[in-house]
């Protein structure tokens, strides 16, 4: 019987303590954070502008909203900054007060947690492994129509499957939901990693549909999870006003406001990060497809989901194989709706990715 504890992707301290490792020597493939780290130019500017801590941020975040608006190609009136996507998820669900919600899964557990506080009924719509976790639009529309739902939650690209709903299918889904008075929340935490951002993002649809709110943040692509900066985009101004009224004043601090403007303007960093992720993702995906021990699904985010096909080898076995080589991947056993042996790992620097591929090849000779 396997008694190895199940760890979350951010539990590097617990994992290193359990396996007696120095966390500084472990490559974290489980956190899905851009391996370039925080932009050097942003670091330099932040360190020389710490005086911003001596004053309150603009309560309306006017300049930051203008910068985000330019970055996204929407009006600043449509944007609400917040203390990470987590705050905005909570504010949106509270403001919408859904009676019955459908969550596309497997996915991030925070959606379900926040819905549980709202008193709403919630169901999961399972992406199907036999369809490579690609959403069947006709089927989900039938489910929504028959189930009397008023709220739909999507993560696009999705975590942990790394699959995506592309533009034409998204428009069909949003149009159907609009006709049935179903509000749609789309978490686009990983959209900047997509091969073609415009083919995946729903931000432009906020100009058409008022039953839509898109959430984004800086934790993953800009490698700034500690900044706690997220933003909501919607043209439903009545909803935005409800969210603002519930939001704690100055929920985003002065450093977050200042750094946020720098991040969204750093075109050199954005270009370099996308070039790295796009090239390494293709290399890893192609290499994994050649390994008989795995089934790999086409990735749109900065991570890859893999199903272990080798008989008798579990996700826990694979996690241990990797962690003993100083490589921390994610055992996906804790994700709801994922049946079978799945692991997930993000794209890191080329030398680290190569090391992970070599470690995974060991599964071919692993005896169980």
Automatic annotation (TrEMBL):
SUPFAM superfamilies for this protein: PLP-dependent transferases
Cited CDD domains: AAT_like
Key words of the record: Aminotransferase, Pyridoxal phosphate, Transferase
Superkingdom classification of source: Bacteria
Pfam families membership: Aminotran_1_2
Names of the cofactor(s): pyridoxal 5'-phosphate
EC number: 2.6.1.-
EC top class named in words: transferase
InterPro entries: Aminotransferase_I/II_large (IPR004839), NHTrfase_class1_PyrdxlP-BS (IPR004838), PyrdxlP-dep_Trfase (IPR015424), PyrdxlP-dep_Trfase_major (IPR015421), PyrdxlP-dep_Trfase_small (IPR015422)
Keyword Transferase: yes
Domain Aminotransferase class I/classII large: 25-359
Protein's UniProt keywords contain DNA repair: no
GO molecular function: pyridoxal phosphate binding; transaminase activity
Similarity annotation: Belongs to the class-I pyridoxal-phosphate-dependent aminotransferase family.
Protein's recorded name: Aminotransferase
